Amino acid sequence: MILPLGGNTALNNNQLVVKITNANLAFGQTIGMVWLATDNQYHAKIQPAYLETTQNWASFHQSTWKLDLNKVLNYEITRLELIVYTYHNPNLAMPAAELSSFDLIINDTITHQIIINQRHIKTAIVLEIYQKNGQYKCRARGEYSNLSLSSLNKYVQTELNENFPKNPQNNDNYEQETNNLWTGTAFAIDNHHLLTCHHVIAGANQILLHQQGKPTLQAFVVMSDQGSDTAVLKVDMPLTVSLSLQTGQRPLLGESIIAMGFPLASISSQLQVNTGNIAGLMGMYNDIRFLQFTAPTQPGSSGSPLLLANGQVIGMVTATLVGGQNMNYAVKYQLLSAILSSCDIDNQPTFHDNIHTPELVKRHKDGLWLVECS
Fold first, then answer.
1. Kind plus residue range of the DSSP H or E element containing 340
2. CA pair distance 26, 94, nearest whole angstrom
3. Which is nearest to 276 in space by CA: 229, 213, 330?
4. How far apart are alpha carbons 272 and 261 in whole angstroms?
5. CA angle 326, 362, 301 (to 5 degrees)
6. Are 48 and 57 in contact (CB under 8 A)?
């Protein structure tokens, strides 16, 4: 049977076998997996089981997990979460790894298809095992993020190990990835600096900025913060148009916004514009650094500014919850402003009256740049 996203089904017994199939991922080389044993509040209760560090209740061999649920689920440990993630090693000279689609075959009879169409996905919660009325059950999860595994630490209340294995199986995959290109969006915030996402430029040996009708610029990283998924870039050639961050406090819930960026750059390098509104004032797991918005996003949207009708930026697109309806997230302007201040960068506020979207795009489009990383 096919287990749809969000669906659940009963398991025959306490012996669980989960096989990975149809995967173009280097599990154990650049991609890791971990079983997290939690209570009903999703707080970890015992040491997790990793690909490279298994437990007496979970082991992994030749693309297959084997679990004894009787050894782990009890009155205190009520659920198991299977998380797939990219390994992190800041000293590894390779492009940033990312997740892609694969299938899970559960007890040879249940198929869960994990569909990941977006670029730069770093962490995915894909399966949940729990017990209800004395019956073991599994649920298909689909919560994907371009933040690293360690971003879950404060929510699960344990230190998750996202580090690269000390003895990976081989290094063939790394050389194959060195010719990869990936793209995102950046926007200018003064004559020489731009903002984009950390995950857009992470692992890049070269960062190029493109805009139709203008020379290609080479950018350099001033700072990059994984926790906030924010990076500041610098270029030598003066930028003619820059955007201003919102200043002060204002009610944002329900506010109309315009998102501008370069999604799907492999198909078209044209600037894309989408509209929506602010749907929530917190990110995933109630993270106050982010807000939720409804303007559609696609791969390449990361780093796009969210603008009000007066042209001020209230957020920067960072993540989309794949499988969620319009569950898109942006870094709040307050955090972006604090990051610029820490770099001694002065983003001068500019004001104009609320204007219609076509005029807004015309005024500010030259402040948007397509980011190409290699």
1. helix 333-342
2. 14
3. 330
4. 5
5. 30
6. no
Structural tokens at position 371: 């980011």
d(CA 356, CA 239): 25
Number of H helices, E strands in the chain: 5, 24
Evaluate whether 88 touches 97 at the Cβ level (below 8 Å). no
Let me know: does 154 contact 44? Beta carbons within 8 Å: no
Whole-angstrom Cα distance, residue 347 to residue 287?
A: 25
Q: For residues 212 and 93, what is the distance between their CA atoms, to the nearest angstrom?
A: 31
Per-residue pLDDT tens over the stretch 61-94 = 888 999 999 999 998 999 999 999 988 755 443 3
**What's the one-letter identity of residue 338?**
A
Q: Which one, of 175, 141, 154, 133, lies nearest residue 41 by Cα? A: 154
Instruction: Give the burial string for 7-37 (b: 16+ CB within 10 Å, else e).
Output: eeeebeeeebebbbeebebbbbbbbbbbbbb
Taking CA atoms, 11 is separated from 108, 110, 139, in Å, by 11, 9, 10
Walk me through the domains of the chain, giving residue ranges and CATH numbers.
8-173 (2.60.60), 182-373 (2.40.10.120)
Distance CA 187, CA 221 (A): 14
Give 141-172 pLDDT, tens digit per residue. Answer: 988 888 888 889 888 999 998 887 654 433 33
Q: Chain-wide mean pLDDT for the chain?
A: 85
In whole angstroms, what is the distance from residue 11 CA to residue 14 CA? 8
CA distance 355 to 308: 9
The length of the chain is: 374
CB atoms near residue 82 (< 10 Å) = 23
**Residue 32 vs residue 322, higher pLDDT:** 32
Q: Identify whether the C-beta of residue 215 lies closer than 8 Å to the C-beta of residue 237.
A: yes
Question: What residues have CB less than 8 Å from 176, skipping those under 6 apart?
Answer: none
**Is the pLDDT confidence value at 371 over 50?**
yes
